[in-house]
Design a protein that fits this description.
This protein is mostly helical. 75% of the residues lie in helices and 3% in strands. The chain is built from ten helices and three strands. A three-stranded mixed sheet has the order 2-1-3.
């Protein structure tokens, strides 16, 4: 379809139903934003600075922290400004760029959980060959196909959305440029966009979940045969499983809330969509920091050093 859009500018009007209470949302969302930035930055610093944490499992956790650190940066600052100053406008190009980065970086949340599941599979089921299997040259065959898949599907999703014509409304009941929120404003047929959207959901989070589930089924069935070392390695799996359950639950609620609309207030849909992106960014580094013993110990030591430096400076 030739792009003959009459709208090059859009209004992100999420939570408009709250009226005068809308600016109050600045407080909880800014607190979550600060928690996300500080917790993920601390986790990244600890993993990078401690040589004892330079192993595949901790590097993957650092990769998740990097994703969780960057994802809120693409939409939360603009959202906070809209709460305080009603800066709700965004250009079509800006909207498509924001959409690409949100969906592209967001796709790696489930993809990193796949790599973590494979890491635990090799550690528990083939412990003698763990370092050989997790060597970068060997592990690239698991990394590259999923990266190519994510790049291709998200690029296709965004490019098709950019070709639509927007002849009618230009107001999105959302706080950021979500794919379906923009597609719904288009005039003409959006069947191909809906199809590619569903394919993206299936080929990224659903396929990732299937791989993760299969990996953990094999892992749990192998633990009785692997003895004490397998039980010890299994403890790290529990942390990943907690993160997976929380992430998938929020993702499922957000997905269903946007497609099952009867009786569900519009602000609830917007809330679940923002939590789908922001809450895991706050939750993941905290749960990894609490449940992973070596990371927890290094975080405690780092905070103690910071406190001593601060005390020495003031004295």
């Amino acid at each position: 379809m030739e792009n003959v859009s009459s709208h090059k500018h859009f209004i992100l009007d999420g939570f408009s139903e709250l009226g005068a209470l809308r600016p109050v949302l600045f407080i909880p969302y800014s607190i979550m934003f600060v928690v996300s930035l500080s917790a993920n930055s601390l986790l990244l610093y600890v993993v990078i600075s401690q040589r004892s944490l330079h192993s595949p499992m901790y590097i993957l956790i650092a990769g998740m922290a990097c994703v969780d650190l960057s994802l809120p940066l693409f939409f939360v600052p603009h959202m906070l400004l809209s709460f305080l100053f009603a800066w709700r406008g965004i250009s079509l190009i800006g909207c498509l760029v924001q959409m690409f980065f949100i969906h592209f970086v967001g796709a790696f949340q489930s993809t990193l959980l796949v790599w973590m599941a494979l890491d635990r599979y090799f550690a528990i089921c083939t412990p003698l060959y763990y370092h050989e299997r997790m060597a970068l040259t060997r592990f690239l065959k698991f990394i590259i196909p999923l990266v190519i898949r994510n790049v291709f599907m998200v690029s296709l999703l965004v490019s098709l959305a950019g070709k639509l014509s927007f002849c009618f409304r230009n107001v999105m009941n959302h706080c950021f440029c979500e794919h379906m929120a923009l597609v719904e404003l288009a005039c003409g047929s959006t069947a191909i966009n809906n199809l590619v959207g569903l394919m993206t959901v299936f080929l990224i989070p659903v396929v990732d979940f299937i791989i993760i589930t299969a990996s953990y089924i094999v892992i749990f069935s192998s633990v009785p045969k692997s003895g004490g070392s397998g039980v010890k390695a299994l403890q790290t799996c529990v942390t990943h499983i907690v993160v997976i359950i929380v992430s998938l639950t929020i993702a499922l609620v957000a997905f269903l809330s946007y497609r099952i609309r009867n009786g569900l207030p519009a602000e609830s849909r917007v809330f679940f969509s923002t939590m789908y992106l922001l809450f895991p960014s706050c939750f993941n580094p905290i749960i990894y920091g609490i449940r992973t013993a070596k990371i927890r110990q290094h975080i405690v030591n780092t905070l103690k050093r910071c406190r001593l430096v601060s005390t020495g400076t003031h004295s």
